[in-house]
Design a protein that fits this description.
This protein has 342 residues and is α/β, with parallel strands linked by helices. The chain has helices at 48-52, 134-145, 163-174, 186-194, 210-217, 231-240, 253-256, 269-272, 282-303, 319-327; strands at residues 2-6, 20-24, 36-44, 71-81, 91-97, 101-104, 112-113, 154-157, 178-183, 200-203, 222-227, 241-249, 276-279, 310-314, 334-338. Helix 2 packs across helix 3, helix 2 packs across helix 9 and helix 5 (210-217) packs across helix 6 (231-240). The structure holds NADPH dihydro-nicotinamide-adenine-dinucleotide phosphate. Keywords: Oxidoreductase.
């Protein structure tokens, strides 16, 4: 077997070959009762995995331990089973190890079986890593249950060409909002405007202060900031938000690779403008909305109402490099690693 093993805790950006390493590993020769063996197909590249490398015990997700395989959301096919709930041939989705083959005992088995129809459906399997996976669930669930969108409002989405951001923008647009996005290159901004039909977008790396770009993009003020970034983006949004504006706090990627967190200087505006900030974790509503989320988003994608942008890297050995490159902004849409064909 080949696996990505977690070797060393990074201080800033993780480096392939140093912090996580592609290497040969042994598979147990037989399965015990309750075990399954999966042949892994896809991995989802998610920024929260960076936090798990820090080794903080008791955080909202368990940390990684040195010497163990990396793990995260992914998809595999059950090829051996001593667990009647997971027959051979099932396509499973959930937390899997970053390996060609995963030997999964019952205690670590939180997988769900995808419907048999996925084998010959019009829906590409990779969509279950993005728009139909945790990124889509975060976007759909937070807009439905947290953000309280009202038609005619203006929403600003940061990391807008990322997995969550590009879906949030399109979903908000479907609901009649004016959508503004920021991203780290002119080409990302072009796609936001031309392909994804954002109303306004700017390159936050252009050299202009983010607050100035945001003000220009929101001449009538800002109702909602959908925060994927934190840092200077959050600071700028607090300036531009209207009185009683809202922030839906999805993530703070600006913080994940910094030795010293960015110091937000205008938190006083939260009470002065009566701004409401609400964070969420998609795990909070996963069970509650999974069926309706899957049904709605599958329909929107197949009808062409929204587009699922993907950035697919082929080969397990390329996963560490792709993970770090995406943290630095390489990906357009959902970062996925394809390990094998079904
Ligand atoms: P992606 O990996 O798809 O995209 C992240 C993008 O963030 C990068 O491509 C980069 O694009 C941008 N970025 C990186 N560093 C910075 C920075 N310092 N300032 C501004 N932009 C930056 O991420 P996701 O869409 O999967 O995740 C987005 C956020 O949502 C993350 O914070 C993540 O942790 C969070 N999240 C939260 C969930 C929840 O349940 N609350 C669920 C899923 C994700 P660019 O070129 O624009 O810089």
């Amino acid at each position: 077997n080949k696996s990505i093993i977690f070797m060393k805790r990074p201080k800033d950006y993780p480096v392939a070959g140093e912090h996580f390493v592609f290497q040969h590993t042994e598979l147990a020769p037989t399965l015990e009762d309750g075990d399954i063996l999966t042949r892994n197909l896809y991995l989802s590249l998610d920024p929260y995995l960076r936090g798990r490398m820090d080794g903080v015990e008791g955080a909202y997700v368990p940390c990684f331990y040195l010497g163990n395989p990396f793990n995260g959301y992914g998809m595999g096919e059950v090829i051996q089973s001593k667990n009647p709930k997971f027959p051979v041939g099932s396509i499973v989705f959930g937390i899997i190890t970053w390996e060609h083959f995963s030997h999964i005992p019952p205690a670590f088995n939180n997988l769900i079986i995808l419907p048999a129809a996925v084998r010959d459906s019009k829906v590409p399997l990779s969509w279950y890593m993005g728009a139909l996976g945790m990124s889509g669930l975060a976007a759909y669930g937070s807009l439905k249950l947290v953000a309280n969108l009202q038609p005619g409002e203006t929403i600003f989405v940061s990391a807008a060409m990322g997995a969550v951001g590009h879906l949030v923008g399109q979903m908000a647009k479907r609901q009649g909002l004016r959508v503004v996005g920021s991203a780290g290159s002119d080409e990302k901004v072009r796609i936001l405007l031309e392909e994804l039909k954002f109303d306004a977008a700017f390159n936050y790396k252009s050299g202009k202060p983010i607050v100035d770009s945001l003000r220009e993009a929101c001449p009538e003020g800002l109702d909602i900031y959908y925060d994927n970034v934190g840092g200077e983006h959050l600071e700028a949004a607090l300036e531009v938000l209207k009185r009683h504006g809202r922030v839906t706090a999805c993530g703070m990627i600006d913080d994940y690779n910094r030795l010293v967190p960015y110091h937000i200087k205008n938190l006083v505006l939260i009470f002065q403008k009566r701004i409401k900030i609400e964070g969420f974790l998609c795990l909070d509503f996963e069970k509650e909305i999974w069926p309706v989320f899957t049904e709605d988003v599958t329909k929107w994608l197949l009808d062409g109402d929204i587009v699922c942008k993907e950035d697919i890297v082929v080969g397990l050995k390329n996963a560490p490099d792709a993970f770090t490159a995406n943290l630095k902004g390489r990906n357009f849409g959902k970062g996925v690693v394809k390990i094998a064909d079904l």
